[in-house]
Amino acid sequence: MTESARNYKIKRYDFNDSMEKLFEDIVAVEHTLMLVMESGESFEVACTADEYLKELVIGRLYTEGFITEAADVKNLDFSNDKSSVRVSVISEGKKHLQPEKIKKASVDMPEVKELINIFEENARLADDTGAMHSCMIWAGGKVRCTAYDMGRNNAIDKAVGMALEQKLDLRVSMLFTSARVPAGIVGKAVNAGIPVVIARGAPTSAAIELAKAHDIRLLAFASRQRVNIYC
């Protein structure tokens, strides 16, 4: 297992008293994971090294359309230093390019408020580095999956991978991300079959249009006080 954070002795300059002070900072460790498919196709994922690399890989394969369920993964063979993983899937070389059509969901605003509150409480406690994005998946009236990573896509993929391993029905779930929402994040929700995406950050116009095209409910600028409903 590789480390996720490292301590650095630094100097901090304080503008109020115009002085440098010695300080110990906790910094996220960046880790590159190379995914190598049996077909020879490979791609790199820059992530924070932690115990959820398996879920990251499963979630990435799912949201990129390589698998339709966790059971499609035949084998994951990680190198000893966790820098690479050889991936074997049932439908090698094929992608389900046409995800299942999403049924437009109703949004229970009291549940959204509860999810926002839980998210804010956990986000403050979980990251000492200031470098982490976080993601939660809500289903059945409670948070079922929570994941963190320096990459917003990775955090989502980890949470989706956890959900797949739990055999959650993502068609009746909500996804909350700490990040802003470009079209790529909505695209992951489309491929995962998640009907509701909530973000602490801002959406882009392309994300809004993609969400509308696939009947995804998109909420953003989420805080304890308010949330914007885009579609």
What does this structure look like?
By secondary structure, the protein is of the alpha/beta class. It contains 5 helices and 12 strands. The strands form 3 sheets. It has a 6-stranded mixed β-sheet, sandwiched between helices. A 4-stranded mixed β-sheet has the order 4-3-6-5, with helices on one face. Helix 1 packs across helix 3 and helix 4 runs parallel beside helix 5. The protein is globular. It starts with a strand and ends with a strand. The model has no long low-confidence stretch (mean pLDDT 88).
Structural key phrases:
12 strands, 231 residues, 5 helices, single chain, six-stranded mixed beta sheet, four-stranded mixed beta sheet, alpha/beta
**How many β-strand stretches?**
12
User: In one word, what is the shape?
Assistant: globular
User: How widely separated are the two ends?
Assistant: 42 Å
Low-pLDDT parts are: none
Oligomeric state as shown = single chain
Specify the helix fraction band. Answer: 25-40%
What's the overall average pLDDT, rounded?
88
What's the SSE pattern? EEEEHEEHEEHEHEHEE
Sheet-strand content, in percent, reads: 25-35%
Structural class: alpha/beta
Strand order of the largest sheet: 8-7-9-10-11-12
Number of helices: 5
Radius of gyration: 19 Å
Major sheet: 6 strands, mixed
